[in-house]
Amino acid sequence: MGGIRMQSGMAIPNLINLCVDRSVHGEISGRIYHYYREEPWKFENVVQLLRYLEKFYDGIRFPEASVMLRNFADADQTGEKTEWKLIGDKKKMLEQRGQCATFFVCVRYRQNATWQGTLVWKEKEREVEFRSALELIMLVDNTLEG
Questions:
Q1: Are 62 and 13 in contact (CB under 8 A)?
Q2: Inside any domain, residue 135
Q3: What is the pLDDT of residue 137?
Q4: Are 134 and 39 a contacting pair, CB within 8 Å?
Q5: Domain count, the chain
Q6: Per-residue confidence in pLDDT tens, the chain, 146 aa
Q7: DSSP code of 13?
Q8: Is residue 39 part of a domain?
Q9: Distance, CA of 11 to CA of 143 (rounded, Å)
Q10: What's the pTM?
Q11: How many angstroms separate the CA atoms of 32 and 30, rounded?
Q12: Residue 94 falls inside a structural domain
C-alpha cells in the first residue's frame, strides 16, 4: 500500500483522477482528469468511461496493451489524433473532487484484454488492487452503494 496516496502521485504518468458526480441505480457519470489535458473528459455512463480510459492508455502508450482489442469496424479505420503533452499544473488535476466520490486510478498492466492496477478512494484514503476492468467498476459501484 501507499503507492498512489503519497504526494509523489505526480510522478505517475498514467494517473487518472475519476470524479463521480452522479450515481443512480448503478450507473455513474462524472469527469476524468489526467496530466495531459487541462479540461476534463465528461462521461455519462460506464461504457463511455471505459472507452475514454482505453483511449487515454492507447494515446500515451502506457501501460502498453498486450493484445489488440477486436471490433467489427474496418481494420484500416483511423480515429482522431490527439497530441499528448504534459500540462503545467499537475497539482490542480489532483485537487479535483467528485460530488459523490473521487478515485485515483493507476493501471499498471493491460494484459488479457483487460486492466490490472490500483484504485484509491480519495475521501477515505483506502487503496485496493483490481485485476480487471470489471472488478474496477464493481469496486467503484460498491463504494457508491455503500
A1: yes
A2: yes
A3: 97
A4: no
A5: 1
A6: 345 544 445 578 999 999 999 999 989 999 999 999 999 999 999 999 999 999 999 998 876 665 565 556 765 555 566 777 888 778 899 999 999 999 999 999 888 888 999 999 999 999 999 999 999 999 999 999 97
A7: T
A8: yes
A9: 26
A10: 0.84
A11: 7
A12: yes
State how far the Cα of 90 lies from the Cα of 141, in Å rounded to an integer: 27
Amino acid found at 115:
W
Q: What is the CA radius of gyration of the chain?
A: 15
Ranges assigned E (strand) in the chain? 16-24, 27-34, 37-43, 101-109, 116-121, 126-130
Q: What amino acid is encoded at 15 in this protein?
A: L
Tell me the residue range of the domain where 115 lies. Answer: 15-66+83-145
Q: What is the pLDDT of residue 7?
A: 46
Residue 77's SS3 state is: coil
| Distance of alpha carbon 61 from alpha carbon 146, whole angstroms | 34
